């Protein structure tokens, strides 16, 4: 791949997907990127491991190797390029994931840059945040509150993906009975957003999810490991990214209710999709994030309506990425955060 960034002689450590298969993911020394016009360089403080990273590792999500992985990024602005306001220097920020879009297609013009066919994102098509530094457009920056722990800022990106699914347009009304299938990080965030919207939320998981469900309960959400009653919920949020989870969510939705796909399957699954017809379900989703969903996410964080720190269950160094990725594949914990400065 020909990088869009000029390179300096300085070197840094980074997690690079070099070819096909998870065995091609390795920690390497790469050049520290230079900063061109309109760009900023961020010294990464924390990057979250996402289910999408697992899919990229196993070639189940579109990408272009070689590429530095990681897109749930928080850090400190280290350098600004020509034309960028120096007020950003030293600011703690979270980062939108799009490095570039065409800005001309119907989706870009409608503010839906996430759907641009020419979109190139950090961690898949452009070098991302499992590194000591990352370079990205200044327009991607969102200032984090001073009181927010640096590592928690890495969860702003998945929260923006959740608000894209749930708030644009709003899919939950005050008093709605809401089921979340899958108590992983996305399910925990979706449950909190649904609660903030006035929903009465139940998070469903399996017996092996007891630790995750305990976190959800601590966040004020109802939890269950029992089979949920058919047609018992106004809105179902499928966050497990599994066929059984989606099937259970479709069954649990009431007639005339709503089904929202939040999780990514990463492969074709078989579903009882006639439930959509028989019950006249409204089906919606949201791919990645938009500037509008980021605005919503940052407001929720600033207002203290979403708790992020309890979702961080493991912190690892870049050198430990391989074992952390394997743990994510097994579904261990909630959110693992990679800290480049951790030794």
UniProtKB/TrEMBL annotation:
The UniProt record lists the keyword Metal-binding: yes
What top-tier enzyme class does this entry carry? oxidoreductase
Q: What's a Gene Ontology MF term here?
A: L-iditol 2-dehydrogenase (NAD+) activity
State its cofactor. Zn(2+)
Family designation:
Belongs to the zinc-containing alcohol dehydrogenase family.
Record-linked Pfam families: ADH_N, ADH_zinc_N
Enzyme Commission number: 1.1.1.14
Q: Which domain of life is it from?
A: Bacteria
Which keywords annotate this record?
A: Metal-binding, Oxidoreductase, Zinc
Please give the InterPro entries that the UniProt record associates with this protein: ADH-like_C, ADH-like_N, ADH_Zn_CS, ER, GroES-like_sf, NAD(P)-bd_dom_sf, Zn_alcohol_dh
List the top taxonomic levels of the source.
Bacteria, Bacillati, Actinomycetota, Actinomycetes, Micrococcales
What is the designated name of this protein? Answer: L-iditol 2-dehydrogenase
The Enoyl reductase (ER) domain covers which part of the protein? Answer: 21-339
